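__Record contents__

***
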Amino acid sequence: MRNLLERRAITRYMPETELLLSCARPQPVCVGADPGVLLPDLSIDELLGSVRDWELVITQAREHRVLPILFSRLSKTDAAIPADLMRRLQVENQRNVFHNLRNAAELIGVLSSFDAEMIPAMPFKGVVLGVTVYKDLARRPSGDLDLLIHHRDLKKAAAILMKRGYVLRTPLRADGTQVLPDNCEYQFQRQADGMEIELRWRLGHDLGLEWAWPRRQRAMLSTVEVPNFDTESTLLILCMHGAEHEWSRLIWTCDIAQLLTSFPSLDWNRVIKEAKRVGFHRVLAAGVLLARRVTGVAVPEDVLRSFEFDASASNLAGHFQEALLDALGSPSPGPKPMRNSQLLGFRDGLRLLRSPHFLRPNERDREVVHLPESLHSLYYLVRAFRLIRRRFGFRPYESGT
């Protein structure tokens, strides 16, 4: 067995970085001879003895939203850990547990209020992801509450939230239209406790509640059933969300790895077919390849080969991987600049352009410019202009369509 210094030289990363990467693994993984996986072969116990900068570990774990995962892994080790460090991590973890419990209670209350007014709503990410993918409400930090609704229900839903003490933070014009017409969400905040909610009516280019609702499942949040995305849709959404932010935080890679681990019977044919249909096959491929390379999570060989065959997806995964690992080794994380348009392949772009519904003008096109009814056919030109603009400044998770 090679000694610690020899393996440090091979992995090339600081022990603080290697510790976070090791904690990010959803379960012990046999790496084998796969040279594409940059998973350190150091155990957590060994790494703990070589960590010197615990402030960097805590700072980076907090920045990359993996403090609860770090605490969970360290609390199970037999290695000696500074007592003051464990106390700090325990305090941070308790804050996270309290925050997640508040989010869960608020989500249940909001969904109940929406249901009373017959407003369908689908929660995603956050606490629902924690209980379904991580199997533990406390294992994953949650920020705000995200809900997908029909655009037609936006006013009613907003009124309900305002009755619950929320204030709309999204800027609007005097006539009630949005200042940013490409926006696909309303952001709300409650001053009394800082609770934040985002109402979305689009994910991706053209994925609304009509896409998600028929395939919905149920999740148990405390003792209450709430609607939830099916596993295949969740994987695609997580890849879209990570791509939007250029995978600049470790938690988003952990989410993919944990989902693949928790649901080994995932229907890969279905998720790949759906990703191609909606134009995000490369987004899916890059996200899965990144999770594989960073965490070593198991991916079926045929799926892995098909994703690696897309040279652009493989290169993008390498870019995100390098940027993420560089960020983990410095106190100022941030992705390297890139052209987001690379995430849409040529065929994916053609699929989108061939979709009649995708090319049809919608309410956001009409918010860009107000035309008299006799000139409404010109909205097709407005839409074409917006699509071209977004093609070269592409943000996959934010619809704007």
Remarks:
- The first helix runs from residue 4 to 11.
- Strands lie at 121-124, 145-149, 166-168, 185-190, 196-200, 217-221, 224-228.
